[in-house]
Design a protein that fits this description.
Elements lengths: L1 E10 L2 E11 L4 E5 L6 H8 L7 E6 L2 E2 L14 E4 L11 H6 L7 H14 L15 H14 L4 E5 L7 H17 L3 E6 L11 E6 L2 E6 L1 H6 L4 H5 L4 E5 H4 L8 E5 L4 E3 L4 E10 L4 E7 L4 E6 L8 E5 L2 H9 L5
Parallel strand pairs: 3-8, 3-9, 6-7, 7-8
Antiparallel strand pairs: 1-2, 1-4, 4-5, 9-10, 11-12, 13-17, 14-15, 14-17, 15-16
Helix pairs in contact: 3-4
Bound molecules: adenosine-5'-triphosphate.
Length: about 325
């Protein structure tokens, strides 16, 4: 188990993380999500031992993970960290970068593992290309294969798919996360992208204002977001008072409604005037204003003309589900 206990950290007195407590089980896959600058990368760097802590401690099993004041070479041997700047050897080939840490005493295994990893990242035909001649996305894929080749017990990934196009990203995500599970590698991934989280993570940690705002099952957090901030990490969302949704309700309590949870009607529901229409492929994202001047985002299967009046509805099931979880903030 990885234990992060009472960790607080700041750069030059500016506090970035406060009182972080997390326990991560062996083989668990945990995603850390939060707005830009909330401290995701800093937390990964702390876990990897790149910073000296004035407050708090990190343990892997019973071993403390210590910072540069205690270790000449940062990073314990059982842990690997893929930073946002890849850390590749630019003047040697893709295959050499991947196999650099494999044992030359087992040449057959070295060849097989290198080719397995090249296949996984879809760069078999680039095996003999020098890394400095690759695109940013290709380099990121090599960096992923390189950390995996080292068979860490814990892998820390910082935005591991940020440079990779959508076409490749989905397949790569499935391959990498399956590989980690099959090989029992504990993984902590910092990301902005909920698509790295919902299909793959066992647990989600949401960071905001230096603290852990929510932690738990990714689908539970998605289905019952405690705040507009949490919901917005998964897509366009609204915080809306129940008496607007259901005129007979005598409470101003607000609940979160995702844009896709509204149904658009021509004749009954919350009246809104269409202000902006954004084509999204499978649907249109619409920005509309209520009669009270509140802005709502919702999905429509068809394009809606500007200034058209439409009516929005939310299912009672959704309202009741959100009401049961307690007030949103
Ligand atoms: N070396 C540094 N010196 C001073 N401040 C830093 C340093 N690195 C990061 N910070 C600051 O610490 C805060 C957290 O940064 P961090 O990179 O951990 O955020 P993040 O959540 O990973 O952001 P992003 O999603 O944009 O990568 C930010 O306000 C950032 O400006």
């Amino acid at each position: 188990m990885l234990r992060i206990e009472n960790v607080s950290f700041g750069y030059h007195k500016a506090s970035v993380l406060e009182d972080i407590n997390l326990r991560i089980q062996r083989r668990e896959h945990v995603a850390i999500i939060g707005e830009s600058g909330c401290g995701k990368s800093t937390l990964l760097k702390i876990i990897y031992g790149l910073m000296d802590l004035k407050q708090g401690e990190i343990f892997w099993e019973d071993e403390p993970v210590l910072g540069p004041a205690y270790n000449l070479v940062p990073g314990p041997p059982f842990m690997k960290y893929l930073s946002q700047d890849f850390d590749l050897m630019p003047f040697i080939t893709v295959a050499e970068n991947i196999s650099q840490y494999l044992s030359v005493f087992y040449p057959q295994e070295l060849k097989e593992r290198t080719s397995e990893l090249l296949d996984m990242i879809g760069l078999t035909e680039f095996a003999n290309r020098k890394v400095n001649t690759l695109s940013g996305g290709q380099q990121q894929r090599v960096a992923l294969a390189r950390v995996l080749a080292q068979k860490p017990e814990i892998l820390l990934l910082d935005e591991p798919f940020s440079h990779i196009d959508n076409f490749l990203k989905n397949r790569l995500r499935r391959n990498i996360f399956k590989y980690l599970k099959e090989n029992g590698i504990t993984c902590i991934v910092a990301t902005h992208d909920y698509q790295d989280v919902l299909p793959f993570a066992d647990r989600l940690v949401v960071l905001k204002d230096k603290k852990v705002l929510a932690k738990g099952s990714p689908m539970e957090i998605y289905k019952n977001p405690k705040s507009l901030y949490v919901a917005s990490l998964f897509g366009e969302a609204n915080s809306i008072s129940i008496d607007i949704l259901k005129s007979y309700a005598n409470t101003k309590r607000k609940i979160i409604v995702y844009a896709h949870e509204f149904r658009v009607s021509e004749n009954s529901g919350i009246p809104v005037n269409v202000k902006e229409t954004y084509p999204m492929g499978a649907y249109y994202l619409i920005q509309g204003d209520t009669d009270e001047g509140e802005t709502l985002f919702f999905h429509s299967p068809k394009e809606l003309k500007l200034d058209k009046k439409v009516f929005l509805n939310v299912s009672l099931e959704t309202i009741n589900q959100r009401l049961q979880q307690g007030p949103s903030v």
